[in-house]
Amino acid sequence: MTDRQLLLFSAGLDSFPAWHYLGQPPALYVDIRHRYRAPELQAIAALADRCGINLTISTELDLSAWHGDDVIIPMRNVFLAMIASRHADAIWCIGVKGDHTLDKSPDAFEQMSQSLSSFAGRPITIASPFWDMTKTDIVAWYLAQGLPADNLLLTFSCTESGNASVHCGTCPSCLRRWIALANNNITTAEFASPPWQWHRVTDYYLPAMRAGRYPEHRAAELVSALATVGIRP
Ligand SMILES: [Zn+2]
């Protein structure tokens, strides 16, 4: 027998607000043994304890050999959806506005829903409630509910910290985390190095933005976040 719905939970700045947004459904963390699992496990333990999340940790799958030179695990969300389908028919996997990786987009989730339904022999849906919201919008929604910012800061978003539970401040995940928090006037998030001083901001993001190679909404949110620390590109 399966639960009616299940949230794939990563302890990140998207899936924790999603847990509230979706009415606090059962959550599943799949420990696929990726490089930054230690701080993620610490964060989910802290959040589950603080908020009473009905959380299951799956150790059914070891994808550590699937890491490439970067942190990307190909087809990660396909694997996660397959594991989640053992527990639920309605699976929430959090993608946000502008996500367009091969295994995380509205079209990718529709294809997964069709394939898994066919292979499982029952209707299964993979969906995100946040395709029309940016991380900044999601944090704004969370705060507008009167939910505590402190809990938001227990989430973990960094992919380059190794086993440390401090956000490095110099990876794309940290930059996106800082932008979403800064644009919502949360200035107490800790980073080992200030994300706005990361060389990729001036070497890559701002030139790409000026050349029109960066989605317009993400460019606007980067500019407004930089303004909060006095940088006006
Ligand atoms: Zn980082």
From TrEMBL:
Q: Which SUPFAM superfamilies match?
A: Adenine nucleotide alpha hydrolases-like
Q: Which UniProt keywords apply?
A: ATP-binding, Ligase, Metal-binding, Nucleotide-binding, Zinc
Listed EC numbers:
6.3.4.20
- UniProt enzyme class: ligase
Question: Which InterPro entries does the entry link to?
Answer: QueC, Rossmann-like_a/b/a_fold
**Which Pfam families does the annotation name?**
QueC (PF06508)
Which reaction(s) does its UniProt entry say it catalyses? 7-carboxy-7-carbaguanine + NH4(+) + 2 ATP = 7-cyano-7-carbaguanine + 2 AMP + 2 diphosphate + 2 H(+)
The biological pathway it contributes to is:
Purine metabolism; 7-cyano-7-deazaguanine biosynthesis
The similarity annotation says: Belongs to the QueC family.
Protein name per UniProt: 7-cyano-7-deazaguanine synthase
Supply the source organism's classification: Bacteria, Bacillati, Actinomycetota, Actinomycetes, Micromonosporales
